[in-house]
Amino acid sequence: MTTGFFEGIAPLRYEGADSTSELCFRHYDPDAVVVGKRMEDHLRFAVAWWHSFAWEGGDPFGGQTFVRPWHPQDDMGRAKMKADVAFEMFELLNVPFYCWHDADLRPEQGDYAKNLSTMDEITDYIGEKQAASKTGLLWGTANMFSDRRWMGGASTNPDPDVFAYAAATVKGCMDATHKLGGQNYVLWGGREGYETLLNTDLNQELDHMGRFLSMVVDYKHKIGFEGAILVEPKPQEPSKHQYDFDVATCIGFLRKYGLESEVKLNIEQGHAILAGHSFEHELALAAAEGMLGSIDMNRNDYQSGWDTDQFPNNVPEVALAYYHVLKGGGFTTGGTNFDAKLRRQSIDPVDLIAGHAGGMDVCARGLKAAAAMIEDGGLEQALDERYAGWQSEAAQAMLGSDLESIQKRVLDEGIEPQPRSGRQERLENYVNRFV
């Protein structure tokens, strides 16, 4: 028996690029083989519980626009109805995974013990539904940014009681993730930063954040959780400056506290843009350092200065993103989570299905383009040619030499470098052949 929320909507099927159906997949064929692996196994799509089911349509200037049968989200009956609708949508989209924050699943009780009890109850219920579904948990996380208790941060809070509450919250969420067979656990420090340095001790807060993350890693091993621990970079919003600013900052933080072999990164397209980077840059850097764990796929409105979390629609951007994912070896425990939400005026249930279907098709087109570029090898060949000089014996010896010896060689050999074209426009034209 269904809830009726998606009444009249049939499960989506792959119909090919020429289909004129509104609700179908034109490019996402889960069983199509791309560079030796099924497309579903490459992309590992996940639906975000928070934007798809918990978000009510508010923004900084206006309140609720979505009116759902499970609103207000203030009791366990409605929480279970929300779970029923979620699994109906997972079946319609045939997605392998979903993701959650604890506050998305259960009503806020204003009391830790009650929140823990309702979290246990709802995850037991979700576990039953999951057992009858093909859809499993990609990752869980704790919402430590919405409630007023987190206004000064969680692990970085100046109040040790808040640190304790955060630690207890994360333990409960890790237990729930482990119970549901989650493949990762994510920490996003939504308020792990500052609004002014006038009241902030940077060193102490960073040390506390490092110690907190070490406790998380220790607990992972204690309970036998085999998934990955991931942190998610974001530069600001809601904090003026967040300590997990971007990929490079997170890598430096992990190395400082000796966690680089234990923790990887969950990288979001919208956060990359807010940090002044491209998604491609953040993924390439994480992959180069062996720290690419999973991705949140969305986009920002480039005319807006905040995190709009829209569904992806730019195939060239997505293709370059998956190019670096594939070059980095592809996902293991990670996947493609749609941290994307409808626009406030898209109030119909069918909009929720259409938004995900369109995003899945864009990602499938990007993956196919990325795979074609890798199989063609043109970008790798261009890199090899550009750096070919470093393959010489003299160039390699120079890296182990010193300034005096290098100066002598320049003088003795009369070295006068001649600039060579970087061929950027030609390479951009090359990429456009595939997208």
Automatic annotation (TrEMBL):
Residues reported to bind Mg(2+) 2: E268, H271, D307, D309
One GO MF term: xylose isomerase activity
Catalysed reaction equations from the record: alpha-D-xylose = alpha-D-xylulofuranose
EC number: 5.3.1.5
Essential cofactor(s): Mg(2+)
Amino-acid positions noted as binding Mg(2+) 1 in the UniProt annotation, renumbered to this chain: E232, E268, D296, D339
Active site, UniProt feature: H101, D104
GO CC aspect terms: cytoplasm
Cofactor notes: Binds 2 magnesium ions per subunit.
Domain of life: Bacteria
Keywords in alphabetical order: Carbohydrate metabolism, Cytoplasm, Isomerase, Magnesium, Metal-binding, Xylose metabolism
Compartment list: Cytoplasm
InterPro entries according to UniProt: Xyl_isomerase-like_sf, Xylose_isom_bac, Xylose_isomerase
Main location: cytoplasm
GO biological process: D-xylose metabolic process
PANTHER family assigned: PTHR48408, XYLOSE ISOMERASE (PTHR48408:SF1)
Subunit structure: Homotetramer.
Assigned protein family: Belongs to the xylose isomerase family.
HAMAP family on file: Xylose_isom_A
Protein name: Xylose isomerase
Organism for this UniProt entry: Sagittula stellata (strain ATCC 700073 / DSM 11524 / E-37)
Gene name, Swiss-Prot/TrEMBL: xylA
